[in-house]
């Protein structure tokens, strides 16, 4: 995962032994050596074989890697990422034009390893692979909640494993300015809560990413989402900024002043400083959500707009963007921004990142703008991996013309951070991002959701082996919530629940930066295995609802098991006020499970329910859909199908 | 945990609200602020209350902290670590002479928090606390396997939580020299596998430790365990050192040459450099295990010994130590070394760390040497926490005189690293170290093992909240071993097994630095909950073996559950060669469980087994005690008791 563009398999395999060793021919460099080293570490871990970590010069090693050259000094979107990988009875062979291509081949190699009898083998395959889109990104919002360096590093490890190649680093927000400026030290000293990346950190991360074939695109939000800039340097403000960073979330009313020359001097010096840290040819200036009430009321700004024939805020923002674009061009950087920067006044070499949707992206492409799709890949929507997976950045049904289609560079997963922190981020990002990564890399026609989930479960374990905590965070949080290590029943209870969407949580909780993110909702994972399992079982059961079928038994057993967990959990709630928050869910679960089991019985036995049963149960389901403890039942849609299938 | 020296509790408690806030009176400094910040973070996590992270100047805050002064600029063994903590209906109050004392008080405060109805409270208490021993250490061997900085940092977090105050950093070994020397760069360039701490890392760790009231005592092994020095600088060798670091373990035959002046010049310059990094007044020179065959055969060394009237290797080592002591004295450092440095030729201000046992420690004290006990605290012996817990560094039964008793400074837990790495260290160190920490801090008469285990289970969760992975490593490893996330049954199976001792594993596996430490034995934890639980149930059941008692039911249920896990696990073994390693254990488990259930039945029903039953079952137990997959059954001693209690 992601599935290669082309794979031919034959019967049999190459058996891995402790002699398995990499040899580089034609070309070698330290970045390639590093990738080989990491690959061998993973192979050691997977097979238990004491493989040698160093590449060898001998030509007898069964893994040969033939790379034409290092690739670009600064990885661009045109970097050749293709590779071929063949496994024969004599060994494995990787060929690539660049080190980045070879890295992708090595990641594929790791995933090929499988048990066979008492050995581990590489199946015999011939793979020709290259990405469908050149821009395959993951954005992490480090503004609203700071993420320590080790979290970002393990995120990059996970990205490399699934061939994502752009780390979009959201570095500034109303709630915190997270990157050190030596020219403007107040940006972090006053504009943050003390948590920020030093320039050394940032350089280290850029180099860590490059070692893994990943570009780093930094984002500095302007003119909106910039309260932190203005808290630190009030002269930049269009109006009266607050005196300290915001702790609450939501769109702020504080924009930079686009009418003062000093603003551009500041931005030019600041971006110039950032350009010495971030070598990527792209810089992201944000640009979204700029209500800018001050632009309508500040007499100086109103006068400026009048003088420059700028009829509204959008026109003023376009003026601002034109000025910033000039600065970026001077720094040899391309501009990237969110939908709102889209304006005919801007030249065609800016890139639009669309959070509004495919239509907005297509609109940009029609006007000649390059674009990246993000709208369907918002992880905080808490949608299933399967939903994200089926959203295509450029479906063949799109009405765009061939030349316009080329303008769609790819997609970016977005992980906004209002409702997460270092202790919970992994389970929000992984494994769902792996499914989206496949969408960005693999051919459009790879859309088998069943097969995706099967493989997602496997890669999830690989990601855990790389140091990600997405599978362990839940247990750790449940132990802390319950104050005991006896969480067998609580774990079962929790497996039937998942976090509600960002919007619903925000509405219910009024989450702020000061909210402690250690409630039950923070423990449970989005799209946990139970959701898909029950949906799938329900589907097959309803197709041929036989009594005593395996599907019926599995469904009934699952509902019985989750219902049986409740008494223990309710006892634990008596000793934990924080766990008691889910009391209502605990009360609802056994009743819902009973409804499910009754429905299954009615359907499989062909008996009819008494009149009114269905209406009363549908009402029960509706009640259970109402907000409670900002978590929802993973099986509620399946239960709805079951109840609706009952005959009265 | 550790239990305070004196605690008086009264009924009721102080209810924590989001207004709870710390105020420092009399004195404040940044180290204290840092400790308060960490405390509030923990309180937020524990209670979910959005407590303010900053201390306030207002006197109305319900947590007042009164500290007399910063304490010593470089924390010594004489640092005043005492504190008082009182909780009244009006709030909490901590008093201490030093910041270190206040830190201990804050750690105690965190542990006091408990649920009460729908609130979290601090119970009303009055605590006067100070440590029994001034030296409460944990040694981590970073030579044989390197531990990344984040592992060491979370270890220090755990140490602070249980009031350990010495991090003994074992930095050099035959298998790797782990600390950067700018004077002698080959020490790491040639004398390691590339994994080492930079001087900046080391300074960072010293400062991280100081912020938590922990001293850092570095160890540089000499003249033995020094292959890495000699690989890098062959001139230091007594004989012919190898050309690369050792990968196998066990005592090496390569000692530094104690007869050449250049050796001492080298040591003097190197230790001088280290003294600029490590401010602690103590430096550890190792000194253990020096077979030194070259000292008997190298003609130059033999001639030197003759000329200096040094009759044997021990005398030559004493000469060496005297010379090194002079260097350390010049650096204003006290010398610490293992038992072997004990020699009447050495002045009395060296400290002996005893890995040989209480007798050796007492012998040192009788001769006037200060000592630290380590022998009973070797974590790689894979002994139960309860065993370590009951080993006292200075039992009241000791024959030492009052003046000699003062020479026993305390104890040190030792975590040698032949058989662990970053992925497994946490479950080897924690939570057992917390039990030993209590032994070092609390009064001698605190020896209730039941109560210790009860509290250990609680603090284990707190340690997990600090970022330690001791409770999650097992699941992560089991998932990787089985290649599936369905580990419910495998988890149950694994819960009945634990790693064998260091010695047995070494014998069976011939572990080397290249061994991949990801077998089943690496997944399971020493002294897992099942061991103590079954031992305790067996004990109470045998005391009054009634049919239908709760003990009988719990015991039978447990054995039934673990036996029932086997079919699923055996199926998983078919798809995992690495998991299949435990096949024999899986075969043995159901039979042993059946024996247990039969025995319980015989005993509780008062029926007799047929003649020969007992002998055959004891033989079965003996067979199960034989090595297999370097893991052992946690219940085997209990089973033995049960079978022996059956009447024929």
Can you characterise this structure?
Two copies of one chain form a homodimer. Chain A is an alpha/beta fold. Chain A folds into three domains: 6-129, Chitobiase/beta-hexosaminidase domain 2-like (Chitobiase, domain 2); 135-465, Glycosidases (TIM Barrel), CATH 3.20.20.80; 473-645, no CATH class. Chain A has 27 helices and 19 strands. Chain A has an eight-stranded parallel β-sheet with strand order 12-9-8-17-16-15-14-13, covered by helices on one side. In chain A, helix 25 (583-605) packs parallel to helix 27. The radius of gyration of chain A is 27 Å and the shape is globular. The mean pLDDT of chain A is 95. Chains A and B meet through helix 1, helix 16, helix 17 and helix 24 of A and helix 1, helix 16 and helix 17 of B.
List the helices and strands and how they pair.
The structure is a homodimer of 648-residue chains.
Chain A: E1 6-15, E2 22-25, H1 30-47, E3 63-67, E4 83-88, E5 91-96, H2 99-112, E6 114-116, E7 119-129, E8 135-141, H3 149-161, E9 166-170, E10 172-173, E11 176-177, H4 186-189, H5 199-210, E12 215-219, H6 227-232, H7 261-275, E13 282-284, H8 294-297, H9 299-307, H10 313-330, E14 334-338, E15 351-354, H11 358-366, E16 370-373, H12 385-390, H13 402-405, E17 408-415, H14 425-429, H15 432-441, H16 449-465, H17 473-482, H18 488-494, E18 497-499, H19 502-509, H20 520-523, H21 529-543, H22 550-564, H23 566-573, H24 577-580, H25 583-605, H26 613-625, E19 631-633, H27 636-645
Parallel strand pairs in A: 2-3, 3-5, 8-9, 8-17, 9-12, 13-14, 14-15, 15-16, 16-17
Antiparallel strand pairs in A: 1-7, 4-5, 4-7, 6-7, 10-11, 18-19
Helix pairs in contact in A: 1-2, 3-5, 7-10, 21-22, 21-27, 22-25, 23-25, 25-26, 25-27, 26-27
């Amino acid at each position: 995962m992601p599935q290669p563009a082309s794979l031919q398999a034959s019967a049999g395999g190459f058996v891995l032994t402790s002699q398995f060793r990499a040899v580089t021919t034609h070309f070698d460099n330290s970045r390639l050596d590093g990738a080989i080293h990491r690959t061998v570490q993973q192979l050691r871990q997977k097979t238990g074989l004491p493989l040698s970590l160093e590449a060898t010069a001998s030509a007898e090693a069964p893994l040969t890697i033939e790379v034409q050259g290092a690739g670009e000094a600064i990885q661009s979107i045109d970097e050749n990422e293709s590779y071929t990988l063949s496994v024969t009875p004599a060994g494995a062979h990787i060929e690539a034009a660049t080190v980045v291509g070879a890295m992708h081949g090595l990641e594929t190699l790791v995933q090929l390893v499988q048990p066979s009898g008492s050995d581990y083998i590489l199946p015999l395959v011939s793979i020709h692979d290259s990405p469908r889109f050149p821009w395959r990104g993951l954005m992490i919002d480090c503004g609203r909640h700071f993420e320590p360096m080790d979290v970002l590093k393990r995120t990059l490890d996970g990205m490399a494993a699934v061939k994502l190649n752009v780390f979009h680093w959201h570095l500034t927000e109303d709630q915190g300015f997270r990157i050190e400026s030596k020219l403007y030290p107040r940006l972090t000293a006053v504009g943050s809560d003390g948590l920020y990346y030093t320039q050394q950190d940032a350089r280290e991360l850029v180099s860590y990413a490059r070692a893994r074939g990943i570009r780093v695109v930094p984002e500095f939000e302007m003119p909106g989402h910039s309260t932190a800039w203005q808290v630190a340097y009030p002269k930049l403000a269009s109006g009266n900024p607050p005196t300290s960073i915001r702790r609450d979330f939501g769109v702020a009313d504080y924009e930079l002043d686009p009418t003062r020359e000093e603003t551009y001097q500041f931005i030019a010096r600041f971006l110039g400083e950032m350009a010495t840290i971030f070598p990527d040819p792209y810089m992201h200036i944000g640009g979204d959500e700029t209500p800018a009430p001050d632009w309508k009321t500040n007499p100086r700004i109103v006068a400026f707009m009048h003088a420059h024939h700028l009829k509204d805020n959008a026109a003023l923002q376009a003026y601002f963007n034109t000025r910033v674009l000039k600065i970026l061009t001077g720094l040899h950087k391309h501009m990237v921004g969110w939908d709102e920067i889209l304006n005919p006044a801007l030249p065609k070499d800016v890139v639009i990142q669309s959070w509004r949707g495919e239509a907005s992206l297509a609109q940009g492409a029609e006007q000649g703008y390059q674009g990246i799709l993000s709208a369907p890949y918002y992880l905080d929507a808490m949608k299933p991996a399967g939903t994200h997976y089926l959203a295509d950045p450029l479906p063949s049904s799109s009405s765009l013309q061939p030349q316009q289609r080329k303008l769609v560079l790819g997609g970016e997963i977005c992980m906004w951070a209002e409702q997460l922190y270092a202790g919970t981020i992994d389970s929000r990002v992984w494994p769902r991002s792996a499914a989206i990564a496949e969408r960005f890399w693999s051919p459009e026609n790879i859309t088998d959701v069943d097969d995706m989930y099967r493989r997602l479960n496997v890669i999830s374990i690989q990601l855990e082996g790389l140091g990600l905590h997405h599978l362990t965070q839940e247990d750790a949080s449940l132990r802390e919530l319950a104050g005991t290590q006896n969480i067998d029943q609580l774990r079962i209870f929790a497996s039937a629940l998942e976090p509600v969407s960002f919007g619903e949580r925000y509405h219910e909780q009024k989450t702020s930066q000061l909210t402690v993110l250690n409630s039950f909702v923070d423990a449970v994972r989005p799209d946990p295995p139970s959701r898909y399992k029950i949906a799938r079982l329900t589907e097959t059961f309803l197709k041929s609802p036989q009594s005593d079928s395996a599907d019926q038994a599995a469904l009934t057993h699952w509902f019985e098991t989750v219902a049986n967990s409740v008494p223990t959990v309710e006892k634990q709630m008596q000793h934990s006020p924080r766990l008691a928050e889910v009391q209502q869910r605990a009360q609802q679960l056994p009743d819902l499970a009973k409804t499910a089991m009754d429905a299954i019985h009615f359907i499989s036995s062909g008996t009819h329910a008494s009149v009114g049963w269905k209406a009363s149960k549908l009402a029960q389901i509706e009640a259970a859909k109402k907000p409670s403890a900002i978590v929802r039942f993973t099986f509620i849609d399946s239960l709805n199908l079951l109840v609706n299938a009952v005959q009265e």
